[in-house]
Every structure is written in C-alpha cells, then in structure tokens.
Design goal:
With 95 residues, this protein is an alpha+beta fold. The protein is built from 4 helices and 3 strands. A 3-stranded mixed β-sheet has the order 2-1-3. It starts with 12 loop residues before the first helix and ends in a 10-residue tail after the last helix.
Length: 95
Amino acid sequence: MDYGKAWQDGIGIHKSVEYLYEQKSMADVTFNFPGSDPNRAHKLILGMRSSVFEAMFYGSMASTDGEVTITDIERPIFDLMLRLSCNLNATLKLI
C-alpha cells in the first residue's frame, strides 16, 4: 500500500467529486444499459444533486441491490446528464 500523498490532499470538494466521477472510486450504484457497458456512480452525490435520485436511492421504496437498468435513454446521453448532475464540465456536440 502506498502511504504517500493521498488523492484528497490539497484539493477542494469540486475536484474531489470530479475525481470520484472520473475514477469511479467508491462507486456504489451501477447503471446498466441494454447493448452498452454499464456506468458506475455514487448514490450520495447523485442524491445531493437531484430529488429524483434522492427518492430512487434513499426514499421509502429505494432499491438496495445497487443495480439500475436504464432502457429509455442512451448511455452517452445519460453520461452527460450524470456529469451535469455532478456539476462537472460537459461538452455538447450539436448535430
């Protein structure tokens, strides 16, 4: 185990959230998409940023298995939504 400088040292909360999003470190929910790779995320961060995610993960009918299947949106669009939910920079390409 490396006991050198921790990734958290010297960065603020915004950079910490960005690191967790990019590295998927400590992710506790997996979003599955038919025909695409899954995407891992953090329930706490999503719940802090969205009342829908808060209800989904912490409401009275919250699922505890850590798996969510998404069928009504494509993965790239969902990924963009997650980035924006985490208040991270996102690039939009207009077609």
